[in-house]
Amino acid sequence: MALKRDSVSEDGRALPVIIKDTIMAAEHAARLLRTEEAARYLGLSGRTLEKHRSYGTGPVYRKIGGRVVYAMADLVAWSERGARLSTSDPDAEYLPPARRHAALAPAYRRQGPR
């Protein structure tokens, strides 16, 4: 199988498309998105993604200075955890909604009668 050569390396030689695609995929995976961009990518609102972050149910994020950013690879990995083959898929992992859960956030449990 012949490789199509349409890209040029730093020294002027042609790169196979496979290498070019691998480089582009690595650049894409290393890209960092702000909360609104990440939410748009996932099809969520920015506020929903903020809630997931607060409750510990969302994708991995990073704080750089005062900014919260998400790596594309982490967004893809988190969304893949919810992938299902059917509604009764026994191997599917449960991704909780963006709200407090006593099992996940014990600090929110009610303490005694009020």
| Topology as a string of helices (H) and strands (E) | EEHEHHEEH
Q: What is the helical fraction, as a range of percent?
A: 25-40%
Beta-strand share of residues: 15-25%
SS content category: alpha+beta
| Unreliable parts | 1-5
Helical segment count:
4
Helices and strands in order:
Blueprint: E1 5-8, E2 14-16, H1 17-30, E3 32-34, H2 35-42, H3 46-55, E4 62-64, E5 67-71, H4 72-81
Antiparallel strand pairs: 1-2, 3-5, 4-5
Helix pairs in contact: 2-3
Descriptive labels:
114 residues; alpha+beta; Arc Repressor Mutant, subunit A; 3-stranded antiparallel sheet; two-stranded antiparallel ribbon; 4 helices; 5 strands; flat
Describe the structure.
This protein is an alpha+beta fold and 114 residues long. The chain has a domain at 30-79: Arc Repressor Mutant, subunit A (Orthogonal Bundle), CATH 1.10.10. Helices cover 37% and strands 16% of the residues. The chain is built from four helices and five strands. Strands 3-5-4 form a three-stranded antiparallel beta sheet. A two-stranded antiparallel ribbon has the order 1-2. A hairpin with a 2-residue loop joins strand 4 (62-64) and strand 5. Helix 2 packs across helix 3. The radius of gyration is 20 Å and the shape is flat. The N and C termini lie far apart (74 Å). Residues 1-5 have low confidence and may be disordered.
